[in-house]
Specification:
330 residues; mainly alpha; 16 helices; globular
Length: 330
């Protein structure tokens, strides 16, 4: 974008060339696909004028600042959590947050977005919840969370307005920055790069699609086939969620929604599990300490034992919460 070849933003050889320009004097042998909307690249343009290590350090401090802000907002959002000693240390020792800091990922920003969505739903600021839900498209795979959150709000039209405004801004900005061809290429580009060659470390993914692909006997279906199966399972789970969510505490429904959004997001690595911090805090706030503790160590299970085991535990937990019947609070 900075160099003026904006129309080639979703061209893999072009991405590879400019990635090597950024990381010079180091050399990247493989391209790391840029899958975001062009608008999300603009805040990072200033980093391209700085040495790589300086950019990395600045972004690390940005992530650390977000965690501090996360603690302050959490203290005002979760009324009971302050009763637990040293709760505020949890975000700084949570394994996915540490990994996100080390590898310079956007996961901590997504945690903050999920927190704001919950806060705005709780405060009945539904339009703002919709707007922040639109920002989840900073990583497009998390759009799978939006239909769940849509169900949890009372004024769904306002929520939808907020979300669609952001989507419209992203579409218009893509047309302005990169042109209509880039917008048309975008869906096929996502499908092209979501495979074993480009996804990277697919065996480590905390997703149902990865669990199915690597654990079905004799690779019964292709990786792309597991994506279609993932979509079918998403539809089935969503239908079950529609039937069950009204019967449970909305906090439990939100926890289930967050976990499902990770399981069905297709591309989720260990650092992306930082988003589980929201369910952890919600469960601590509800004094469900056993479940909160299990979720807190779940990334360790994923990293050290098995992503498939972690996925199945999370899936079971999400469903168990939908079977509980406390009164709704919001």
């Amino acid at each position: 974008v900075r160099s003026g070849v904006k129309s080639e933003i979703y061209d893999l050889p072009t991405q590879h060339f400019y990635q090597n320009q950024v990381v010079a004097p180091f050399i990247k042998e493989n391209v790391l696909p840029f899958k975001n909307f062009p608008l999300f690249s603009l805040p990072f343009i200033p980093f391209t004028f700085l040495p790589l290590r300086v950019s990395y350090t600045i972004f690390a401090f940005f992530n650390l600042s977000l965690l501090v802000l996360f603690v302050f907002v959490s203290a005002k959002t979760f009324n009971n959590i302050r009763k637990f000693r040293l709760w505020f240390i949890a975000p700084f020792v949570f394994l996915p947050n540490i990994l996100a800091m080390i590898v310079g990922q956007l996961s901590i920003m997504l945690v903050f977005f999920y927190l704001l969505i919950y806060k705005f739903i709780k405060d009945k600021k539904v339009f703002l919840a919709g707007v922040i839900s639109g920002f989840l498209l900073v990583k497009p795979q998390y759009v799978v969370a939006v239909p769940f959150f849509f169900l949890l709000v009372k004024n769904r039209l306002d929520y939808l307005k907020g979300f669609l405004i952001v989507v419209l801004v992203l579409i218009i900005s893509t047309l302005i920055i990169s042109g209509p061809d880039s917008l048309l290429k975008y869906p096929s580009f996502l499908l092209l790069t979501e495979n074993e060659s480009f996804a990277g470390h697919t065996q480590r993914m905390f997703t149902l699609s990865s669990t199915l692909y690597y654990n079905l006997p004799m690779k019964l279906i292709s990786y792309k086939g597991t994506l279609y199966l993932n979509a079918l399972l998403y539809f089935i789970v969503y239908c079950i969620f529609i039937k069950k969510y009204r019967r449970v505490n909305i906090d439990h429904a939100f926890v289930s929604a967050v976990i499902f959004s990770l399981l069905f997001a297709v591309h989720v690595l260990e650092h992306d599990l930082a988003i589980l911090l929201i369910p952890v805090f919600l469960l601590i706030n509800a004094k469900r300490l056993a479940l909160a503790s299990l979720l807190f160590i779940l990334p360790l299970i994923v990293l050290l034992i098995s992503p498939a085991l972690g996925s199945m535990l999370a899936f079971s937990m999400a469903f168990s919460l939908l079977l509980k019947k406390p009164e709704r609070k919001i």
